[in-house]
Specification:
The chain is an alpha/beta fold. It is 48% helix and 9% strand. The protein has 20 helices and nine strands. Strand 5, helix 12 and strand 6 form a beta-alpha-beta unit. The protein is globular, with a radius of gyration of 21 Å. It starts with 8 loop residues before the first helix and ends in an 8-residue tail after the last helix. It binds S-adenosylmethionine. S-adenosylmethionine binds next to loops.
């Protein structure tokens, strides 16, 4: 039975409820009066239920779809302005005991070398990432209690935070590791992680069990209930996502929103971020083996509807997508992107992009400088801000600041100040020129006019060598 407040995976992600939702969406996709009513409700910027959003996803009336896109763009502008937060993934280890059919790190794949970074090697990676200008990382690791125990992950996080090379620093480490215990989540909280990220891959239990035939990840309930344990362990910023292309996207979309509704209902705070990865070719992996591939157009519609359905939740897109898709989807609602990424274990310290241990093919191969330049030319402010969790603005505190719109008073200035640091310390001359002009223009767009002189002062301090200033 469906119950969003239940702590049982099969009750808060009820298969029956999803199937009924899809049926309801099919029956109503041409009911334009209902579609208009839902769009009007979405304009209140308080979100939509999984049923309402599923009707919009099913509706293919051209005019209505146009309205959905326009609303997503507007909500994106209202809540996130033109800022895009930058991050990079850091792969610690590809040892893995799971049998995930879509992932090259699966246990049976004997054609890739296995590698786990030593603390010395992590230092090299982090220095390379700092030298690119990154301040925020998402660490990634396979699941292997012997090779990558929680102690290894914790030690690695401490190492990452400890490295201060030139003006560089990693100020926020988000963590994407397998589902674990409340006790381990507490330990992650204690070493100061930002967001705990775990993709559901698919919300369909049967499909999930088929795609994860062996290893601890086979346990659907344990995996699906992970965010509840993370919250119980004190981590109040969690990031969810599905791996699009594995199973039917309409099912996943409803499941994703039900998961968000569940977290909000039980813990009083929804997910901090939603990621929208799509399955990619990799060693031993052919995405054509999954016949649920998603067109770029439908992918963009999903992103737009996530933006409308959960306006306060950040949305993340990785370099799995091409620059063209990234450009479109950023406009429709994405707030965080990776740049200059390498998805192999030890990839950043190498001159040439290594492919051997790559988790997936990167479709956006540009350097961070090129991505920053591209974003600014398109009118966005690349932000290297990490202030929120350092100022205690996490979980429901963050959400209430978001909902009242007050968060903008911090985000906009912080974006400009961290961009300024980036331009001085790491940018190419051309990127720096574009960036300095952008900052000049954007100071006048700071919502609270009385903040503008203060921000100018801070920018001057950065010019003179001070670092890590934030509101
Ligand atoms: N091992 C952890 C787990 O199982 O949750 C997390 C780390 S894993 C490196 C991060 C994510 O990469 C997975 O959750 C999955 O969604 C994604 N991934 C795996 N294989 C992929 C592929 N072939 N293409 C795109 N993404 C993939």
């Amino acid at each position: 039975m469906y119950n969003k407040e239940s702590l049982k995976a099969t009750e808060f992600i009820s298969d029956e409820e999803i199937r009924e939702t899809l049926k309801y969406a099919d029956e109503n996709k041409d009911n334009l009066a209902l579609v208009s009513e839902i769009i009007e409700k979405a304009k209140l910027r308080k979100g939509l239920s999984h049923r309402e959003a599923s009707v919009l996803l099913a509706c293919d009336d051209k005019e209505k779809v146009k309205e959905m896109y326009a609303l997503a763009e507007q909500i994106k502008k209202d809540f996130y302005g033109n800022r895009i937060v930058m991050f990079a993934p850091l792969y610690l280890s590809n040892y893995c005991v799971n049998g995930c059919l879509y992932c090259p790190y699966h246990l049976k794949n004997k054609s890739i070398p296995r590698k786990k970074l030593t603390q010395e090697e992590i230092k090299k990676e982090v220095i390379a990432l700092q030298d690119m200008g990154h301040k925020r990382l998402a660490i990634e690791s396979g699941e292997d209690p012997v090779n990558n125990p929680i102690e290894y992950i914790l030690e690695s996080i401490k190492t990452i935070y400890s490295i201060k090379h030139k003006n560089g620093a990693i100020r926020r480490v988000n963590v994407n590791i397998a589902a674990t215990t409340v006790e381990n989540y507490k330990k992650l909280k204690d070493v100061g992680i930002g967001t705990y990220i775990l993709f559901q891959e698919t919300y369909d239990k049967k499909e999930y069990e088929y795609l994860h035939p062996t290893g601890p990840k086979h346990n659907y309930d344990y995996h699906t209930e992970a965010m509840d344990r993370a919250m119980e362990g004190g981590i109040d910023d969690v990031g969810i996502g599905v791996l699009f292309g594995l199973d039917k996207y309409r099912y996943e979309f409803a499941g994703l929103l039900m998961h968000a509704e569940h977290l909000e209902a039980v813990h009083g705070v929804g997910p901090h971020t939603i990621s929208v990865p799509r399955v990619k070719p990799a060693n031993d992996i052919d995405p054509n083996d999954f016949d649920n591939s998603l067109s770029a157009e439908m992918f963009c519609k999903i992103a737009a509807l996530i933006r409308i359905a959960v306006p306060y939740t950040g949305m993340i897109i990785s370099t799995r997508e091409t620059p063209e898709v990234r450009e479109k989807i950023i406009r429709l609602g994405v707030s965080q992107i990776s740049g200059g990424s390498r998805t192999s274990v030890g990839g950043y310290a190498e001159e040439e992009r290594p492919h051997e241990t790559e988790q997936f093919d990167v479709s956006d191969n540009r350097t961070l400088d090129e991505v920053v330049n591209w974003l600014m030319t398109a009118g966005y402010i690349p932000s290297f801000c990490t202030a929120c969790y350092r100022q205690g603005r996490t979980g429901d505190r963050f959400m209430s600041l978001c909902k009242s719109g007050q968060i903008q008073n911090c985000c906009h200035p912080n974006a400009l100040m961290t961009l300024k640091e980036y331009l001085i310390d790491y940018a190419s001359p051309e990127t720096r020129k574009i960036g300095e002009e952008l900052i000049d223009r954007e100071i006048d767009n700071i919502g609270k006019p009385e903040l503008r002189p203060k921000v100018r002062e801070e920018l001057l301090k950065i010019e003179k060598g001070t670092r890590d200033l934030y509101f």
